[in-house]
Specification:
Number of helices: 10
InterPro entries: CBASS_pafABC_assoc_protein (IPR051534), PafC-like (IPR028349), PafC_HTH (IPR043839), WCX_dom (IPR057727), WYL_dom (IPR026881)
Number of strands: 13
Shape: elongated
CATH topology of the largest domain: Arc Repressor Mutant, subunit A
Keywords: Proteasome
Number of domains: 4
Largest sheet: 5 strands, antiparallel
Oligomer: single chain
CATH class of the largest domain: Mainly Alpha
Order of helices and strands: HEHHEHEEHHHEEEEEEEEHEHH
Protein name: Proteasome accessory factor C
Strand order of the largest sheet: 8-7-6-5-9
């Protein structure tokens, strides 16, 4: 089929598309570009010649040599290859630093590893563009598969097939219980994954953290409660009359990390800190929360909570001392 003759608007649209195409490919033949855009090869050649006399005028409002795009003319005229050798305006656009690009690439690697992420080619292409577009080579990073990845895949399957699941759960009091639930929804918060489900043991909706679940098994039983049948609050954690109130002094920057637990805040003596009231289901869960904010949070009240954190820190220090290698002389004394 003979490509149609483009109008002025089509030519402009093609020209605006051709430049990023060439920058992304770094090198292309006229035939490849024509096939990609479904245009005549001569139109590609005309557009390339137009690109070569395009640019942005300098401070004098006149075009100098460095204000124009340039191509490898020998490659273009002798081998029909298109290679842009000088960019204008585009080179001046803000670029990600190597650390910023590495952080984004790490996030994309994590997304690519999720069970439901099927279009990995798109993610891979975006990672490649970030690598090329950074101000310097990004720091090499790799996202390791988490210990809950298999559990997450099983629960997603159960949610999709509306099947019940059974598992052993370690609650905030470090007690192990066997649970059977109707999984309703999977959520993530910070670095943790949660499943909201109707718990047959408790007779109500409960939130379970995946890294506290073990021996997960999808059973051949249809769920008895669906998401449309129960009320799922917008937040993962809900307060109740049985909750424990804990007052902490915390850095302002750390507040978003535990926002789900905060009932109220007020300014602290230090402008960079606030006094926050936390609502917790069990005082036993305070240790894990505070230890995740090293140097940023300090428990003020009640005394039971302060004692709990002191005991937690004492146990951790004791284990560190016991695990530390002994000096050679002491080992043989």
């Amino acid at each position: 089929m003979t490509p149609r003759t483009p109008g002025a608007r089509d030519k402009l649209a093609f020209l605006l598309s051709l430049v990023p195409y060439l920058l992304d490919r770094r090198q292309s033949t006229v035939a490849e570009a024509a096939a990609h855009f479904d245009v005549a090869e001569e139109q590609v050649r005309q557009s390339v010649r137009l690109i070569a006399v395009s640019g942005v005028p300098g401070e004098s409002s006149q075009y100098q040599h460095n204000d124009l795009f340039d191509i490898d003319w020998d490659a273009f005229e002798e081998r029909d290859e298109i290679i842009i050798t000088h960019l204008v305006a585009i080179d001046d656009s803000p670029r990600f630093s190597s650390r910023e690009a590495a952080a984004l690439i790490a996030g994309l690697q994590y997304l690519s590893a999720l069970p439901e992420q099927a279009d990995r080619d798109v993610v891979g292409g975006l990672m490649a563009k970030l690598t090329r577009g950074a101000s310097e080579a990004p720091i090499q990073v790799a996202v390791e598969r988490g210990s809950t990845d298999g559990t997450l895949a099983d629960i997603r399957e159960a949610v999709a097939s509306e099947r019940q699941i059974e598992f052993t759960y370690i609650n905030a009091r470090d007690e192990r219980e066997r649970r059977r639930v109707d999984p309703l929804r999977i959520d993530s918060l910070d670095q943790n994954w949660y499943v909201r489900a109707w718990c047959h043991l408790r007779g109500g909706v409960r939130t379970f953290r995946l890294d506290r679940m073990s021996d997960v098994r999808v059973i051949d039983a249809e769920i008895t409660h669906r998401a449309a049948d129960v009320t799922l609050p917008d937040t993962l954690f809900q307060t109740s009359d049985d909750d424990v109130s804990v007052i902490v002094d915390i850095a302002k920057d750390a507040v978003p990390l535990i926002d789900e637990y905060i009932a109220s805040t007020k300014p602290g003596k230090d402008p960079a800190r606030v006094t926050a009231t936390l609502r917790l289901a069990h005082i036993a869960s305070l240790g894990r929360l505070i230890v995740g904010l090293p140097g940023q949070a300090r428990v003020l009240d009640p005394p039971e909570a302060r004692d709990r954190i002191a005991h937690w820190a004492s146990r951790a220090l004791s284990r560190y001392e016991n695990d530390r290698p002994q000096p050679r002389d002491a080992a043989h004394s």
